[in-house]
Structures are given as C-alpha cells and as structure tokens.
Automatic annotation (TrEMBL):
<feature type="signal peptide">
    <location>
        <begin position="1"/>
        <end position="34"/>
    </location>
</feature>
<keyword id="KW-0378">Hydrolase</keyword>
<dbReference type="InterPro" id="IPR012341">
    <property type="entry name" value="6hp_glycosidase-like_sf"/>
</dbReference>
<dbReference type="GO" id="GO:0005993">
    <property type="term" value="P:trehalose catabolic process"/>
</dbReference>
<protein>
    <recommendedName>
        <fullName>Trehalase</fullName>
        <ecNumber>3.2.1.28</ecNumber>
    </recommendedName>
</protein>
<keyword id="KW-0732">Signal</keyword>
<dbReference type="Pfam" id="PF01204">
    <property type="entry name" value="Trehalase"/>
</dbReference>
<dbReference type="GO" id="GO:0004555">
    <property type="term" value="F:alpha,alpha-trehalase activity"/>
</dbReference>
<dbReference type="InterPro" id="IPR008928">
    <property type="entry name" value="6-hairpin_glycosidase_sf"/>
</dbReference>
<comment type="similarity">
    <text>Belongs to the glycosyl hydrolase 37 family.</text>
</comment>
<keyword id="KW-0326">Glycosidase</keyword>
<dbReference type="InterPro" id="IPR018232">
    <property type="entry name" value="Glyco_hydro_37_CS"/>
</dbReference>
<dbReference type="InterPro" id="IPR001661">
    <property type="entry name" value="Glyco_hydro_37"/>
</dbReference>
Length: 600
C-alpha cells in the first residue's frame, strides 16, 4: 500500500519572500490556515447525518454477541471480544453453521454447543496480532533517563521500558492473505498496542506511547506507528479511532501532527517530515469541513470557525452494541434512538467515553449531547496541528505552506480566546450550541459556556501560544489551584462524580501530561514548581500501584496514592501504553533525585 506522497515544490517567488519573513520575523519554528465552512449543525438533523456502514462480518459478529450473552450470561462477558474474533472459514459457511444451531425460546444456544461452534469456526480474539520483536529495542539504551539518580526508580523505569517488547505486535500473515476474515485492519508496520482488551492500535493513545518510545530511544518503532496512522488517512480519509473495521466511522483527538513533530525534533529526519505533510494537511481538512465544522458569530469579532466531535454513525457501536441498545430502550421512536447512538459514538470519538462533560444531566447517560458541544481541547489540538504543520513545512523548505498555517493558527488562537475564554473563572470553557439551532451561523451567548470544572478547561496550557502569555497564565494558574482538580495523587478529570470513567475521581495519563508539560514550559516560576509537584504525585501513584499489583494501569484514582481507577462500561485495564509513556516522559523531563523517596 502506498501511503506516502511527495510534497509539492513551492514557487521560487513564494519561497524567497517567505524565507525572509520566517528568518526575520519568526526566528523559531512557529504556527496554521482557515478552511472553508460547510454544513452547520442542526439538532433535528443529528440522526440523519453521514453514516459509514460496517462490513457484513461485523454485522454477523454482532448477531453472535447477542446469542453468546443469552447463552453464557453476563458474568465476565466482554462484548468487544466477539467482534474481535477471526473467521477460520468463509463468512457464508460460518453463518450457515451458526443458523443451524438449536435454540431455545429466548434465542440462547446450549453452552457446550456454542463453545464448540466458536472453537471450530473462529480463532480467538487477539490472535490476528502476533508478537513482533522491535529491532530498535535495547535493554539499557545509551543516555536513558539521565536525570533519574535513584536506583529503585531507575529499575522501575527499565521495567516499564521492557514493556515495549511485551506490547509490540504486527498483523498476522492471515490478515494479509484473507483480510475479509478479520475485523482487524492490515497495517503495514509493527506497532505498540495499549494492552489487555485493547488488542489493536488506537489513535490518541499512540501519541503518549510515542513519547515513551522517544524516551526509550526507539525512533524507528515510533516512526512505524505514524506510518500506520497515515495509511488510515490514505485509505479512509481520516485516522480511525482504532485499527478495526468497526471504527471506520469515527476518529479520535487529532494528535498525528504532534507525533510527527516530536519525532522530527529527536531525529531531524526531513524525509519523514516531507512524507508525512500531505497526510497532515488532509487530516486538517477532515476536522475543518463537513459536519465537524461549526460557525459562531460573536460581535465585534464576526464569524468564528470551530470544530466539534461528530461520528459518522447512528446505530449501536458494534463493540458495545448491547449496552447501547439497553440505554436507548427508554426511547420509543427511532429518531431518539438514532440520535443517542450518534452521541455515544461521538463521545467515543472524543476519547472521553464517557463523561458528565457531554451530558445534559450528569446522572443520566442517555442525555448525551456530544455533537451539541464545541470542545475546548479539540480546538486546541487543531491549533497545535496548525502550528505543527507550519513548523514542519518551514523545516522542509515550503515557506508558502508554513505561512498559510501560521496565519490559520493566529486566527484559531483568537477564536479560542473569543469563544471559550472566561476571564471571571480564569478558564477556557466548552461552548454548548443552542438546542433549537437551525442550519446557519450560531450567535454566541455567554450563558452557553459550560461553567462546570473539567481538566479540559486547562488543556490550552499545553500550547506555547497560551503558556507564553504570562498575564493570562497567572489567572489560569490561580484558577487551577482553586479548581478542586489538584488531588493527592494527580489531576482529576472533573469535579463531578458521575460514575463514568472520565469524571472524578479518575485521573488519566494524557491529562496529567498535557497540563503538567504546559506548566513546566511556562516562564512563571510558580507554574514550573506546580508542574514538578504534580508530576511527582503522579509518578508516586503509578509506582506504588505497580509495586502493589504488578501492573501499570489505564487510569488511577487521584484521591489516594497507589489506587487505580474504576467506573465506565468495562473493567479496569492494565498494560498500559499511555501510562507507560507518560511515566517515561516525566522521568525524562523531571528526573528523580537519589535521596527522594518514591513511596506514598
């Protein structure tokens, strides 16, 4: 599969003029460009928006899910397992054998009969990914974490470093020869998986996995992950939520440009940059057009273009289909069911699945309204994408492209401060679109800002455009200290305990990393001190939980050092890709003194 395209050579006139601009006006790699606006959201159209259908294999595996649940019962039942199964034979013969199984009145099949059928006709979930020994892995990399002086912490860090070998996979040969027998997509390069039930590549997880790989000096493995994600853009027009056929209808927070940029900073590989740029531009268009794009008018600044999460799906998510159907059962008409299914899939696109942040009533998941929200963090990620593309284009010598995206980033920064910034609270707040909005431009109303406190309100700190503004930074720092998010063992995701996993008391590695890294890069000493304090708390809770359980965890309970998180629609997972990556990134940035205790 050819997924790299050559970057077009800019005109000589443009190159010379803008070379002088960047040389004189912008001394270091800077910023991005507005895109045309298309459909504007109307809530009445939510269920009638775009839909990307799933394969016949996925549809059949959803049927198998239902029968398996009825037959085996709910104990330790994971819906995702069944849509991750691979066929041993062709789909038609498998379906005929399935339909021939004897069934009771409730549709269940005798347990032993169903077990025999699954064993005869399917390979187990996860067998389509096989172990791959990463060629750039060495047990003790030269220059590994030079600031870590404590012997116990260094030993722990090396154990986490060794996890990259355990989590390294490539697609099996059978996927190449029989792609229709698998829901796993045929990626061209080896990869690092998050772990446990997450047996495939995931989009935004990959950024923090790459940050850990860079600390481990595994540059080729990191590049391979990017090549895999670019192959999705070439095939589907966007990076998928994950590398499965049932994820083709949604993406995840767009951090591909950050991966490319961080790898470039470590390697200086300009060929890698030039090969990646066309895909980054295509992804930028994806997030700034169609149903993802929304226009808000605010006087006196005029119209502002922003982005939102919007999945191209209005049915139950295949990996959670029975849960989605149960939640939608309270609705009578098809419109309300389809609306909820799109909101569920759109929340999954956000990466925050699920959170009170997307709910009109934080006690009721069926009130999800993800597509009615303009999220602070998504628009910050797109701003960073614009900055990254500008920087990378400049490094590659395409000064026209660099200037275009620099301009776009300046527009988006202004938009983010205009629509999201709340000076009274000292935070950037998500913006809710009016319920009765019609197709056209939304008029800004201060009442539509979500005044609840979420860690996402502080994600702009991650971007140089914001952490370098010392006046605004002082307000944000004061607000963060008073927010209730800073806890004994890390930064909470919200202050609302809804029972959903992206709410209090859970803390997640990506949230810690973005906020802490932004604080650490600030010119304000008090921000840098807070960054180190919160990094120490996060490292301690990861270390103690690891020593207690023998695992790195997907999420942690920030109320108590050493406790892992809970809540949500699946049991807590271990492994774990992004947690490993953030620990290594923090140890690389902050180190650990020889005489400093790491126990709680």
């Amino acid at each position: 599969m050819a997924f790299f395209q050559p970057l077009l050579t800019p005109s000589v006139h443009c190159s010379l003029t803008l070379f002088l601009f960047f040389l004189v006006v912008v001394p270091l790699l800077p910023p991005a460009a507005p895109m045309p606006l298309h459909e504007v959201y109307s809530p009445r159209l939510a269920y009638r928006g775009p839909v990307i259908p799933v394969s016949n294999l996925v549809k059949f595996l959803e049927r198998l899910q239902v029968v398996a649940l009825n037959s085996f019962g709910k104990l330790d039942f994971d819906l995702k397992y069944y849509v991750d199964l691979s066929l041993k034979f062709d789909l038609n013969s498998t379906e005929r054998a399935f339909d021939a199984l004897s069934r009771s009145s409730n549709g269940s099949v005798p347990v032993e009969d169903l077990k025999s059928f699954i064993s005869e006709y399917f390979d187990s979930a996860g067998t389509d990914m096989v172990y791959s020994d990463p060629l750039d892995f060495v047990p003790r990399p030269q220059g590994f974490l030079p600031k870590v002086e404590n012997a116990g912490v260094r030993a722990w860090a090396l154990e986490i470093h060794n996890y990259w070998k355990n989590l390294s996979r490539k697609v099996s040969d059978d996927i190449i020869h029989r792609p229709d027998a698998h829901t796993l997509l045929p990626l061209p390069m080896p990869c690092i998986i998050p772990g446990a039930r997450f047996r495939e590549v995931y989009y935004w997880d990959s950024y923090w996995i790459i940050r850990g790989l860079l600390a481990s000096k595994m540059y080729d493995t990191a590049k391979g992950i990017v090549i895999n994600l670019i192959s999705m853009i070439d095939e589907f027009g966007h990076v998928l939520n994950g590398a499965r056929a049932y994820y083709t209808n949604r993406s995840q927070p767009p951090l591909l440009s950050s991966m490319v940029y961080d790898i470039y900073l470590r390697t200086g590989d300009l060929e890698f940059v030039r090969n990646s740029l066309p895909a980054l531009i295509k992804e930028h268009m994806f997030w700034n057009s169609g149903f993802h794009s929304v226009t808000v008018r605010k006087a006196p600044g005029g119209n502002h273009s922003l982005s939102r999460y919007y999945a191209m799906w209005n049915e139950p998510r295949p990996e959670s289909s029975l849960l989605d159907e149960k939640l939608a059962s309270k609705f009578v008409n098809n419109y309300d069911k389809q609306r909820l299914y799109r909101e569920l899939a759109s929340a999954a696109e956000s990466g925050w699945d699920f959170s009170s942040r997307w709910m009109r009533d934080h006690t009721d998941l069926s009130t999800l309204a993800t597509t009615s929200i303009l999220p602070v963090d998504l628009n910050v990620f797109i701003l960073k994408m614009e900055l990254d593309i500008s920087n990378l284009a400049r490094a590659a010598g395409d000064f026209c492209l660099a200037y275009k995206f620099l301009e776009a980033s300046l527009v988006r920064k202004k938009t983010i401060n205009s629509i999201f910034w709340n000076s009274e609270k000292g935070q950037w707040l998500d913006y809710w679109l009016d319920n009765g909005s019609h197709k056209g431009v939304h008029t800004w109303d201060a009442q539509n800002q979500n005044k609840n406190i979420y860690a996402s309100n502080f994600i702009p700190l991650w971007i140089e455009s914001f952490y370098n503004d010392s006046i605004q930074m002082k307000k944000v720092l004061k607000s963060l200290r008073k927010s209730g998010l800073l806890c004994n063992a890390g930064i909470a995701t919200s202050t609302i305990n809804s029972g959903e996993q992206w709410d209090f008391p859970n803390g997640w590695a990506p949230i810690q990393h973005m906020i802490i890294e932004g604080l650490a890069r600030s010119e304000l000493k008090e921000a840098r001190v807070l960054a180190e304090d919160m990094a120490v708390r996060w490292l301690r809770t990861n270390y103690v939980a690891y020593k207690k359980t023998g695992y790195m965890h997907e999420k942690y309970d920030v109320q108590k050092c050493g406790d892992f998180g809970a809540g949500g629609e699946y049991v807590p997972q271990t492994g774990f890709g992004w947690s490993n990556g953030v620990v290594l990134a923090f140890l690389e940035e902050f180190g650990w003194p020889e005489d400093q205790n790491i126990d709680c």
